[in-house]
């Protein structure tokens, strides 16, 4: 979706509606769910037949991405909106995605403005200044540590050192909960789980920091119960029995495809709504980190036969949203109209029995043993418009030369992106 101003982004993405509450023996703390997606309002205008289903999905809220792939002023929009809309006594989830030279293997999301460690520190400090004591739920740097176990460019770019800096800086907020994304594929038998545990123990001392656990399945399709098993496995490998996990359930209702395709995988379905009532002591949250229906990318280079060719990464993909809806939680539970859909889940006290984890359906997608996965590309959400110029971050092929960049901009965004911004790689 291409919006011309920050004001339109706020009106499209944020509405202060109901919040999802969790009760415990000690406190009642809502999860702030005011972030409603970058693309949904325009999608409802373009496709009125999807309005009811989008509204049902939208009421549960998504995790916003604080990423240097968005213009600086676009990040101000996110920060100011969360500050003004989230209740003081609420938990605010957020993805931190700003490593210098991130995504160095797939090169899908490496066009950010953080060029070195000093830039990255300023990027993180901006967040600390904005949320010094708020109850934050931070998902830290998707894929970075998972890529590190394979060596290569992630080691050359010192992802491990930069992530350690992020954990130390974000821990300055006494109320922040930090969850490190470790790349679930690195925990599979085909991966390098022992090396992964060693790396995490190096950057996360057992006697220091506020890292509560790990995030799994970010922007992916793996079954919830399998991610819980990996969470328990990793807790044992690291010697941290009290470790908690966040699981992205946005598109995993039917589990992965046979080849564990990551790009607009066929047969997927919208998963269990965000909640703290996970039914497992180590699963702290189910969250929607990926907005269902936003494309993973064109997917034209995928060889599995299980990817769906779509629009560019972050754009709303109507056919894919319809598939996710039909295959997903709400249709299966017969919650297909606003009147039948419940409000965001109110969790039971943690001492009370909780429902079983999500049971995925296997009628369309078989559940074979996990296939070897070398890397999984994480595609950030659609770029956030700048409140100053209405410009967008460049979203074309990785590492273009100046001529290719200008050609891409002239083709894709002349109506809303100034030429000088195109040349800077930020439209």
From TrEMBL:
Keywords on record: Signal
SUPFAM superfamilies hit by this protein: Glycosyl hydrolases family 6, cellulases (SSF51989)
Cleavable signal peptide: 1-25
Compositional bias ranges of the Low complexity kind: 336-353
Pfam families per the UniProt record, alphabetical: Glyco_hydro_6 (PF01341)
Superkingdom of source: Eukaryota
Molecular functions (GO terms): hydrolase activity, hydrolyzing O-glycosyl compounds
Keyword hit for Signal: yes
Biological process according to GO: cellulose catabolic process
Stretches the record annotates as Disordered: 335-358
PANTHER family reported for this sequence: 1,4-BETA-D-GLUCAN CELLOBIOHYDROLASE C-RELATED, PTHR34876
The protein's name: Glucanase
Organism: Pythium oligandrum (Mycoparasitic fungus)
């Amino acid at each position: 979706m291409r919006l011309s101003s920050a004001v339109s982004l706020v009106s499209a993405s944020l509405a202060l509606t109901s919040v999802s509450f969790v009760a415990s023996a000690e406190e009642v703390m809502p999860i702030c769910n005011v972030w409603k997606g970058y693309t949904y309002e325009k999608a409802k205008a373009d496709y009125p037949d999807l309005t009811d289903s989008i509204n049902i999905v939208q009421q549960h809220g998504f995790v916003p991405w604080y990423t240097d792939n968005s213009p600086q002023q676009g990040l101000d929009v996110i920060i100011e909106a969360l500050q003004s809309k989230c209740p003081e006594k609420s938990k605010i989830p957020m993805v931190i995605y700003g490593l210098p030279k991130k995504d160095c293997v797939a090169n899908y999301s490496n066009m950010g403005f953080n060029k070195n460690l000093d830039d990255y520190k300023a990027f993180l400090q901006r967040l600390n200044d904005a949320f010094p004591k708020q109850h934050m739920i931070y998902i830290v740097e998707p894929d970075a540590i998972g890529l590190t176990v394979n060596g290569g460019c992630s080691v050359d770019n010192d992802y491990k050192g930069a992530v350690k800096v992020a954990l130390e800086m974000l821990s300055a907020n006494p109320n922040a909960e930090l969850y490190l994304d470790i790349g679930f594929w690195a925990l599979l038998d085909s991966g390098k789980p022992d090396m992964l545990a060693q790396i995490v123990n190096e950057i996360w001392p057992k006697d220091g920091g506020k890292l509560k656990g790990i995030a799994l399945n970010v922007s992916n399709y793996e079954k919830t119960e399998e991610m819980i098993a990996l969470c328990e496995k990793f807790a044992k490998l690291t010697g941290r029995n009290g470790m908690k996990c966040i699981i992205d359930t946005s598109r995993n209702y039917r589990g992965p495809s046979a080849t564990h395709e990551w790009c607009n995988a066929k047969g997927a379905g919208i998963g269990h709504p965000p909640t703290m009532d996970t039914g497992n002591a180590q699963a702290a949250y189910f969250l929607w980190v990926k907005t269902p229906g936003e494309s993973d990318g064109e997917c034209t280079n995928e060889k599995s036969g299980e990817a769906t060719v779509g629009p560019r990464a972050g754009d709303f993909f109507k056919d894919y949203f319809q598939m996710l809806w039909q295959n997903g939680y709400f249709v299966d539970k017969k919650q297909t109209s606003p009147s039948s859909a419940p409000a965001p889940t109110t969790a039971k006290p943690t001492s009370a029995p909780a429902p079983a984890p999500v049971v995925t359906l296997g009628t369309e997608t078989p559940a074979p043993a996990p296939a070897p996965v070398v890397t999984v590309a994480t595609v950030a959400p659609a770029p956030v418009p700048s409140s100053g110029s209405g410009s967008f971050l460049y979203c074309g092929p990785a590492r273009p030369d100046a001529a290719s960049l200008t050609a891409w901009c002239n083709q894709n965004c002349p109506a809303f992106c100034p030429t000088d911004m195109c040349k800077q790689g930020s439209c």
